[in-house]
Amino acid sequence: MKEKLLALKEEAFALIENASDKKGLQDVKVKYLGKKGPITEVLRGMGKLSKDERPVIGALANEIRQAIELVIEQKQTKLQEELIQAQLESETIDVTLPGKSIKTGNAHPLTSIIEEIEDLFIGLGFSIAEGPEVEQDYYNFEALNLPKDHPARDMQDSFYITNEILLRTHTSPVQVRTMKKHQGKGPVKIICPGKVYRRDTDDATHSHQFMQIEGLYVDKKVRLSDLKGILTVFAKKMFGEDRDIRLRPSFFPFTEPSVEMDISCFKCGGHGCSVCKHTGWIEILGSGMVHPNVLEMAGFDSTVYSGFAFGMGPERIAMLKYGIDDIRHFYTDDVRFLEQFKRA
């Protein structure tokens, strides 16, 4: 029996040594150490041996079992190391080869314009205010001196959700909300950038969704000349120091007096060209002195406080500044268009 066990050990060792993969090792393990294997059969036949042989053969059988298990484990480790080494050799990377360039994005032209305008007005002492895009009719119209059935509401064809809820048509509601938070105490000095929505047919110069930046300054003794000074600084910083401005009378329900601001054409210098339609001037924004009714509804005493407001479209400014002829370019995500505005 002893000779049989030793022969099984040598036979198993030889098969383990010649095994080339995990499956071969598993087959050897099942063959010699499984429930139907020869070593298990020896242990089951221990009852037929004499009392003197049992402890000797039992100890030898267990020793051989453990030895085979150890050699199988060592062979498994060796095969795993060989597998890893082969994988490393097959996946070798030549670090001297040029790498793949990583494409980086750049700021959208509208984002750049808005940030430039924000930085300019922050430098003039304004802060940035924001508000909801889904707005109440009261803040969007009524608190801005536009009661229900007012004819001027037709100028802003709106997306209504209910009779009292709509997508805001301008960022002016942010001005009203901010003034109410101040509870009748100035100063209020803010700009309000954000998306606005109007029912319009999309074409080269119109969009149902667009950006707007409005400004508001309310305090004691604010005058129209203060508005002109602020807008002059804005025009010169955005379009060049040699720009002139002019204010033309206009009408907005929430300002009185109301004015449109034009700048001298930056392409022809005011002599007349296709950009300015041969007038020498380009319309940029609307503005005016805050209407007393708007001040009163926001909680300010209009006999003590006055203010000015203005509103501009970043798309229009970007189109003029960069010579863009179609507003739809801003919203189509055409990489060829956007790559023209990479920052240095």
From TrEMBL:
PROSITE patterns listed in its UniProt record: AA_TRNA_LIGASE_II (PS50862)
This protein's UniProt keywords: Aminoacyl-tRNA synthetase, ATP-binding, Cytoplasm, Ligase, Magnesium, Metal-binding, Nucleotide-binding, Protein biosynthesis
PANTHER family, A to Z: PHENYLALANINE--TRNA LIGASE, MITOCHONDRIAL, PHENYLALANYL-TRNA SYNTHETASE
Recorded family membership: Belongs to the class-II aminoacyl-tRNA synthetase family. Phe-tRNA synthetase alpha subunit type 1 subfamily.
Substrates-to-products reaction catalysed: tRNA(Phe) + L-phenylalanine + ATP = L-phenylalanyl-tRNA(Phe) + AMP + diphosphate + H(+)
Cofactor note text: Binds 2 magnesium ions per tetramer.
GO cellular component, one term: cytoplasm
Cofactor(s) required for function per UniProt: Mg(2+)
Binding locations of Mg(2+): E256
UniProt name for this protein: Phenylalanine--tRNA ligase alpha subunit
NCBIfam families: pheS
Source organism, top-level taxon: Bacteria
GO terms of molecular function: ATP binding; catalytic activity, acting on a protein; magnesium ion binding; phenylalanine-tRNA ligase activity; transferase activity; tRNA binding
Gene Ontology BP term (one): phenylalanyl-tRNA aminoacylation
InterPro entries, sorted: aa-tRNA-synth_II, aa-tRNA-synth_II/BPL/LPL, Phe-tRNA-synth_IIc_asu, Phe-tRNA_ligase_II_N, Phe_tRNA_ligase_alpha1_bac, Phenylalanyl-tRNA_Synthase, tRNA-bd_arm
Enzyme's top EC category: ligase
Subcellular location: Cytoplasm
Assembly description: Tetramer of two alpha and two beta subunits.
Short name of one Pfam family: Phe_tRNA-synt_N
Domain Aminoacyl-transfer RNA synthetases class-II family profile: 111-339
Protein's organism: Terrilactibacillus tamarindi
Enzyme Commission identifier(s): 6.1.1.20
